[in-house]
Structure formats: structure tokens, C-alpha cells
Design goal:
The chain has 58 residues and is mainly alpha-helical. Helix content is 93%, strand content 0%. The protein has 2 helices and no strands.
Length: 58
């Protein structure tokens, strides 16, 4: 019973959980940012490809 009471009062693991949550939020923000960047980059390269094909065919 004494060991269980000590485990309940121990808060050393709380910091690790907080850091893990912060890290997870940073990773989610990075994924969202890279996803938006990737879609605009794909659109840009598709436009370049279409211009090259149009100018080559002409």
C-alpha cells in the first residue's frame, strides 16, 4: 500500500507527457505546413510542364 501511495504522489512522468504533447503538436503543425507547401509546389511544376509542352508543340 505504501508503494502505491508513493506512485500516486510521484509527478516525474508528468513532464515527459507534457513534452510529448508539445512535440506532437509541433509535428502536426509541420505536416500541415508541408502539405500546403507541397500542393502549391505541385501546381507550380504542373504549370511549368504544361508551358514546356505547349511551347515545344508550337
Amino acid at each position: 500500500m505504501r508503494t502505491f501511495a508513493r506512485l500516486i504522489r510521484d509527478d516525474r512522468g508528468a513532464s515527459a507527457v507534457e513534452y510529448a504533447l508539445i512535440c506532437a503538436l509541433i509535428v502536426l503543425a509541420m505536416i500541415a505546413g508541408l502539405s500546403a507547401f507541397a500542393s502549391s509546389t505541385i501546381t507550380m511544376w504542373n504549370n511549368v510542364s504544361n508551358d514546356v509542352v505547349t511551347h515545344t508543340a508550337a
